[in-house]
Design brief:
Layout: H1 5-11, E1 18-22, E2 30-37, E3 43-52, H2 54-73, E4 81-86, E5 91-97, E6 99-100, H3 118-127, E7 147-149, E8 152-154, H4 162-182, H5 186-204, E9 218-220, E10 229-234, E11 241-244, E12 250-252, H6 256-264, H7 269-278, H8 288-307, H9 311-326
Antiparallel strand pairs: 1-2, 2-3, 3-5, 4-5, 6-10, 7-8, 9-12, 10-11
Length: about 325
Amino acid sequence: MKLESSVARVLSLDPEATTVATHGSSDFNSTSKISTTLKDGTLMHFFMKAAPGKDAEMMFRGEHASLTAIHQTVPSLCPASFATGVSDDGTAYLVTDFLDMSSRPSNSGSEKGSGMSLAAKIAKLHTTPAPIPEGQSKPMFGFPETTCCGDTAQPNDYKERWADFYAQNRLLTILKKCERNNGKDAEFRSLVEQTVNAVVPRLLGDDHLNHGKGVTPVVVHGDLWSGNKGRGRIGGKGAVEDVVFDPSAVYGHNEYELGIMSMFGGFGKSFFDEYHKICPKTPPIDEYADRVKLYELYHHMNHFCIFGGSYRSGAVSIMKSLIQKFGN
């Protein structure tokens, strides 16, 4: 299969020396491996996602920006993203480093990698201040592109305060989608509004978090469950590394990441022990578990939007517990 000519132009590849083969699977798009031979005889591989429509174009722009933000902070943590756009035939695409997930470490021990564990890499990501956004004069919570968690579009317009961003750009936004997909639900709306009006400012307010200093925005992957991590060679070369992929990034509170990590598991005690040695829990520490539950709530709501069913009860249980504890 030949590489579409407009994609070849963007990547500066010779279409006659390039092939495309179906690789892997995805719920939202087609996935392919691009193999090309450079003029010096070097064989290179890329990974490409493609799908029709404006929604796919938006999704890929968000993922391109997300991978770039993560890769610029911790290069060994994720593949680099090289291009996103719309091909001549109207198909949206995203091209990144190929992740060779079938690789095994060399028995010789001669490979030189980062030497960092996944916990250390995530901790480095979460302790590096996010860049000041273009057009802003100070750090902000948000992201320069709309991102997608599953097929949920996440508006990331900037906010000065993290509590405002989480309440408005996450909880209230996903509530609207829940109502569109599943119908009006008075109890559910009431619980979300109580959580936004009472629990969020109580747990995440700048006057409360980090001894009243608030938190510094860092790059957060945004969808870091066990299915979005693995081990492989970035670009099919170098050492086998712990890697992550399929991000929906945001400049946010590092603990926001831990909500979905806790929801689905796959990150054990040893991971969190190592992570927190580098990236300590935000004071007040005795509310750490409650904050993680509050962040987990968003993902229960998002899964309720996408899949329906039992995810509603998980969201309701979290909200009732937090409202009982912090709602007055």
